[in-house]
Design a protein that fits this description.
2 copies of one chain form a homodimer. Helix content of chain A is 23%, strand content 25%. Chain A is of the alpha+beta class. The radius of gyration of chain A is 21 Å and the shape is elongated. The two termini of chain A are 37 Å apart. The interface between A and B is large, with 52 and 50 residues. Chain A binds a DNA duplex (27 and 27 nucleotides) through residues 197-199, 214-217, 219-221, 224, 236-244.
DNA sequence: ACAAAAGTGTTGAGAGTACACCCATGC
DNA sequence: GCATGGGTGTACTCTCAACACTTTTGT
């Protein structure tokens, strides 16, 4: 048996004095992925307050009363990046009693996928010497509760700096999950804007998987899914032959669900 | 915006008077799977106290202070079934603010796999008219905090009775995850005792997938994994030719990890 | 005409699926 | 010797991986 044998007291009321709902605090942390410069990046925040002041950490904040988990994650996401309507999936809940030196804090972690080229996010900066400041400002990030001087930057997801708390494990896990799902589901389309060329899509897959793919095989496979619709448009990258723009066809989704190809959840 | 705009206050101390750690309460609920009578079953508990008194629910209880999530899940599992050292995996965290009528309760859900034929678990009883009483008794189940008259029974996992809270969704999700992982990982071996015949293993797979499998293909596939070692022993099921007993060879695991076949986590 | 990326087919290997008969044992 | 489950092999299909050249455009 560990030290505390106490069982929480339970009360039906909700908004009054203590002791009321006495549980651990719950943080919602998000791994926000995006492909930039041909690499998979994750958004990090520099903590402005102890503990781990000055350390990089995942964006996140505390769950509010009467707020759902997904809702909280979307709120954080919006606060950090200004985006809504992106792919968001719950990852795992980390609950080591010592993961936060301040006391008991669970972290319900999520991962989100931002389309390559999205605006409303901090510029890509080599994180080791990040000098960029906050590049957004509606509600302000919650993470450094009480802190100020924050920075946000896109870090290489495969080579992050030292992170606060157990955020390194969270990031690792998110990377793993993303890679795993990339092959068996359609999450990959979440990393690409609504209209994209097949080469762009391939670059995104390559960035996540960390290896080159064969152009012909990739195109065949992705087209065989039957969820891409060619548009009339094309995009000319530099001074060369224009590439056809495709878009994601939500209509053709259901066939895949049945095959179990889509997100299993 | 929802009603409460309050942000939790944060204090460094931990064990004193309130206001201290003010977060939602956190329950740990477990879907305990087992194959019996050729069907996939899940262990359910009849609630002895409101809310949902008399309703069936997943076994579970509240997270204790200073207790890790996995630790809590294992404790619950031990309390409900007496077993330890079985496959246990975190499933998902359910956080709808209205999921518990008493107030805010998160449910960190797990699923566990018990080897077919394990003792120390309630007898199989048609759940609709379950008459069996508690068949175990070290700490006693935590779930019906304050309740008494509990029962436990194995329900068909594909056709459960009406469940309390959002436990139906949790069970659904667990079934889905189990099925999904069965093909791509080695979780299936968690549902089988340490030594088993190939037919027993096949029956378990069939119960989970809900369909018949071809004997020859099944054997080829499962042997091709290279993680089964034939033992000297055999088991004679009834009055017929004895079947070879196999065991799981943990040694040959690592090859699979690399191929990504093992649990992705 | 040339540079630069877009686009396109074929072949071989391995995995999955469908399918039917002989074998060892207890009675 | 027979009933019962244990155990085995082959052919077809499909998916995946390897591999190189022609086309279109802007300069």
């Amino acid at each position: 048996m560990t030290g505390s044998r106490m069982r929480y007291t339970w009360r039906m009321d909700s908004g009054t004095a203590c002791p009321k709902a006495t549980g651990p605090r719950v943080a919602v942390d998000i791994v926000i992925f995006m492909v930039r410069e041909g690499r998979l990046k994750a958004l990090l925040i520099k903590r402005g307050a102890p503990p781990f002041q000055g350390r990089w950490a995942l964006p996140g904040g505390f769950l509010k009363e009467d707020e759902g988990l997904d809702e909280a994650a979307r709120r954080e996401l919006r606060e950090e990046t200004g985006v809504a309507d992106v792919y968001l999936e719950q990852l795992y809940t980390f609950g080591n009693p010592r993961r936060d030196p301040r006391g008991r804090v669970l972290s319900v972690s999520y991962f989100a996928l931002l389309p390559a080229g999205s605006a409303a996010a901090p510029p890509a900066v080599p994180l080791r010497r990040a000098e960029n400041s906050r590049a957004f400002g509606d509600g302000g990030p919650l993470l450094a509760a009480g802190g100020d001087a924050e920075e946000a930057a896109w870090s290489d997801a495969y080579d992050p700096p030292q992170l606060a708390f157990d955020h390194a494990a969270i990031l690792d896990y998110a990377r793993q999950r993303l890679r795993w799902k990339l092959d068996w589901t359609t999450v990959g389309f979440g990393l690409v804007p609504s209209r994209f060329t097949l080469t762009e899509l391939q670059r995104v897959f390559e960035a996540v998987l960390g290896k080159r793919l064969d152009k012909r095989n990739f195109r065949r496979k992705v087209l065989a899914l039957g969820v891409l619709r060619p548009t009339k448009g094309s995009r000319t990258e530099g001074l060369t032959r224009p590439a056809r723009l495709f878009e994601f066809s939500a209509a053709k989704f259901e066939r895949l669900r049945e095959r179990g190809v889509l997100f299993p959840f």
